[in-house]
């Protein structure tokens, strides 16, 4: 694998982890944290803190961007004893969630912990999200209009 | 320490309280031009940004304040550090910058490219934080103007050669103009645009 | 002139205590929880989020509870809260084409890719009060049906393929996206800024303006090309990572109005568009925004400005209900001194008026006798 591709894959991996951690429920994070062999030594680098992100839309759906309104976002950056740094950003005001998510982002980057994070946390989140999405799509599909044509007149 | 770690660590331990302390110092410093201020907050900005300049950046810069960095600073870990801790966008255009940071020995040919505000909004101007060698051993300069009872003397060492001429030009723009903070390590002093600087006659 | 008057501290404190009591109401009833408001008054929550311009269901529900259900008060509280938080950044523009659809209808095409998906709509209900809700009767689970997956084409894309509709709405490449929370409003304004103002505008005000265009005050011949409601991913570019990450999903409502346009010597005949995008499930609001967005493009499209809905300064200056309520309600505040001054003035004018009248009835009567 060439270097550029490796970096690209690395990014895709981090992006996937960040997305799943942002979608995690606090309960899922707490359960996985409780399953760690020993709680990691963690230093706060930034936050956890809550702020706003301005959300943009596009005129007409695909045109020039415009500012739609803000969302609350909580974020945290932590450093493990090994020096590995983890980041987390998620909608909402739950700073505990942001901190735990940042810890798991860091643990995922450690070779010895990656497998545990995938199995105990990321996999269950991904499964839940897929289930929720399918359920919603199927409930919506049941409200789809099936048009039929009324035959009128003789011919 | 790798570049990433250097860019992420060394910020305020207590962002709210630390920023409040520093803000108070800058406010007092601008109200009393030439007063020597010392930053005691324990931060560790990447070189070549000094502790005082770093603390000012963390306090004053945010998402809405484009920042201009001199070449030496722009090449260092500072851009990443500023982006991480303040969210401030970096600009190459001096005219867009609300804050500008210059390293020791910076050659300044003009202040003119920095925003000087408008007659209606003279506050829409840049504040230049200039790192110099020290604030104690230079040849004496006399400051007069608002916020100074009579006159006061400062001794900045390592000012750009053109500084006094540029400053005189800056004063003619009033109420427009830029404001300057001279920083050296943990120390800084403020030179708002109202302050008149003359070489002290011995 | 302003004159400070002190006093009333005890009355104010007692009034607030009374407010808290009335808000709680009958103590024999369980207190309503924030979760219940989020779950069961979801559209009230959505309206507060949209008009406060802050997407956070829990905080919006808290504001509704605190405001005793007064929506504008709740919007005001949430707006005030948002000013206490720092801004961390600006998201990547939402991709509404990639929305997970919960409802999607078109009034212009019967059969369209992705189909007409009614979703949880009030349409086709009989608007009869439902006594079943009084008894908390059990509610059936929704039915399910195999779903198509993948993105659902926007109706505007279908017309675009034929070249019969204008593009999505571009601004000059060097245009910096305007933000009314950072710069004071200035007229005339660009369409991006108008859409931001309309997204947080008062639903009732925009509804009335949209309605006025249908009744002939600035007609635009609208068709609801497409309305879609669903969740979209919010992505933030994080400098320390060097790429954009997902923050989670938010629900939005998008309305594409298709409007008639006669064309000109320069422009070929084609449909024009009005666009509405709003936080939450808020179909009426998104439609009203799209109507008003189109009406406000009158000047851009070379139309005569003859109606209120086409008057940018009128619409945008009066669409914000927090500003409006602030200025209307400030009339409650003490104006004792202003009023005394006016009272003196009216008394004096009245006296002069009476004197002048008496003088005209009886020109010989000495002035002193009249007093």
From TrEMBL, chain A:
GO biological process, one term: organic phosphonate transport
Keywords from the UniProt entry: Lyase
GO molecular function: lyase activity
NCBIfam families: PhnG_redo (TIGR03293)
Protein name in UniProt: Phosphonate C-P lyase system protein PhnG
Species of the source: Metarhizobium album
Lineage, opening ranks: Bacteria, Pseudomonadati, Pseudomonadota, Alphaproteobacteria, Hyphomicrobiales
Gene behind this protein: phnG
TrEMBL record, chain B:
InterPro entries for this protein: PhnH-like_sp, Phosphonate_metab_PhnH
Alphabetized UniProt keyword annotations: Lyase
Molecular function in Gene Ontology: lyase activity
BP term (GO), one: organic phosphonate metabolic process
Keyword S-adenosyl-L-methionine attached: no
Full protein name: Phosphonate C-P lyase system protein PhnH
Organism expressing this protein natively: Metarhizobium album
TrEMBL record, chain C:
GO biological process assignments: organic phosphonate metabolic process
A GO molecular-function descriptor: lyase activity
Superkingdom of source: Bacteria
Keyword Lyase: yes
Protein name: Carbon-phosphorus lyase complex subunit PhnI
UniProt KW keywords: Lyase
Pfam families recorded: PhnI (PF05861)
InterPro entries membership: PhnI
């Amino acid at each position: 694998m060439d270097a550029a591709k490796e970096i690209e894959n690395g990014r895709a991996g981090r992006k996937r982890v960040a997305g799943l951690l942002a979608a995690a429920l606090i309960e899922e994070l707490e359960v996985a944290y409780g399953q760690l062999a020993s709680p990691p030594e963690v230093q706060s680098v930034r936050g956890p803190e809550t702020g706003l992100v301005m959300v943009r839309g596009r005129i007409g759906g695909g045109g020039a961007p415009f500012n739609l309104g803000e969302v609350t976002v909580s974020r945290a950056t932590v450093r493990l004893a090994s020096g590995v740094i983890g980041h987390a950003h998620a909608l909402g005001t739950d700073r505990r969630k942001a901190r735990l998510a940042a810890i798991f982002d860091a643990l995922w980057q450690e070779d010895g912990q990656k497998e545990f994070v995938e199995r105990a946390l990321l996999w269950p989140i991904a499964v839940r999200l897929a289930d929720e999405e399918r359920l919603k799509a199927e409930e919506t599909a049941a409200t789809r209009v099936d048009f039929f044509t009324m035959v009128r007149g003789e011919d | 320490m790798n570049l990433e770690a250097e860019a992420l660590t060394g910020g305020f331990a207590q962002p709210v309280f630390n920023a409040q302390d520093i803000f108070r110092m800058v406010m007092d410093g601008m109200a009393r031009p030439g007063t020597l201020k010392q930053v005691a907050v324990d931060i560790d900005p990447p070189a070549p940004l000094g502790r005082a300049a770093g603390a000012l950046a963390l306090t004053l810069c945010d998402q809405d304040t484009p920042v201009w960095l001199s070449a030496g600073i722009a090449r260092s870990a500072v851009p990443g550090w500023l982006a991480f801790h303040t969210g401030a966008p970096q600009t190459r255009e001096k005219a867009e910058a609300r804050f500008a940071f210059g390293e020791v020995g910076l050659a300044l040919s003009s202040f003119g490219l920095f925003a000087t505000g408008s007659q209606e909004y003279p506050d829409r101007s840049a504040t230049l934080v200039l790192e110099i060698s020290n604030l104690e051993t230079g040849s004496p300069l006399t400051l007069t103007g608002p916020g100074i009872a009579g006159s006061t003397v400062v001794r900045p060492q390592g000012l750009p050669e053109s500084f006094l001429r540029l400053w005189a030009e800056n004063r003619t723009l009033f109420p427009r103009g830029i404001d300057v903070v001279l920083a050296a390590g943990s120390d800084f002093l403020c030179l708002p645009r109202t302050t008149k600087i003359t070489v002290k006659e011995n | 002139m302003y004159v400070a008057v002190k006093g009333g501290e005890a009355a104010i404190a007692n009034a607030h205590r009374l407010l808290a009591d009335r808000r709680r109401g009958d103590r024999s009833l369980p207190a309503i929880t924030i979760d219940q408001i989020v779950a069961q008054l979801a559209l009230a929550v959505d309206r507060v989020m949209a008009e406060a311009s802050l997407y956070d269901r829990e905080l919006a529900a808290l504001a509704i509870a605190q405001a005793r259900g007064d929506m504008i008060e709740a919007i005001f509280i949430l707006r005030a809260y948002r000013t206490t938080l720092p801004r961390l950044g600006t998201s990547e523009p939402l991709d509404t084409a990639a929305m997970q659809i919960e409802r999607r209808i078109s009034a212009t095409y019967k059969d369209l890719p992705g189909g007409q998906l009614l979703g949880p709509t009030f349409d086709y209900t009989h608007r009869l009060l439902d006594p079943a809700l009084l008894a908390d009767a059990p509610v059936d689970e929704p039915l399910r049906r195999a779903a198509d997956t993948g993105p659902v084409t926007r109706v505007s894309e279908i017309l675009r393929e034929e070249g019969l509709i204008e593009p999505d709405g571009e601004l000059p490449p060097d245009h910096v996206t305007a933000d009314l929370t950072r710069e004071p409003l200035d007229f005339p304004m660009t369409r991006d800024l108008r859409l931001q103002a309309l997204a947080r505008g008062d639903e009732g005000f925009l509804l009335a303006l949209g309605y006025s265009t249908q009744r002939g005050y600035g007609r635009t011949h609208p068709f609801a090309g497409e309305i879609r409601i669903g969740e979209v991913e919010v992505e933030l570019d994080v400098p320390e990572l060097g790429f954009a990450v997902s923050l989670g999903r938010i629900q939005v409502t998008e309305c594409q109005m298709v409007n008639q346009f006669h064309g000109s010597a320069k422009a070929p005949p084609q449909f024009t568009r009005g666009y509405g995008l709003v936080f939450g499930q808020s179909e009426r609001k998104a439609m009203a925004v799209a109507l008003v967005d189109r009406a406000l493009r009158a000047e851009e499209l070379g139309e005569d400005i003859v109606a209120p809905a086409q008057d940018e300064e009128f619409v945008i200056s009066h669409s914000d209900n927090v500003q409006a309520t602030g200025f209307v309600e400030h009339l409650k505040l003490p104006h004792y001194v202003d009023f005394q001054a006016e009272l003196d003035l009216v008394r004096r004018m009245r006296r002069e008026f009476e004197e002048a009248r008496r003088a005209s009835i009886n020109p010989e009567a000495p002035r002193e006798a009249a007093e």
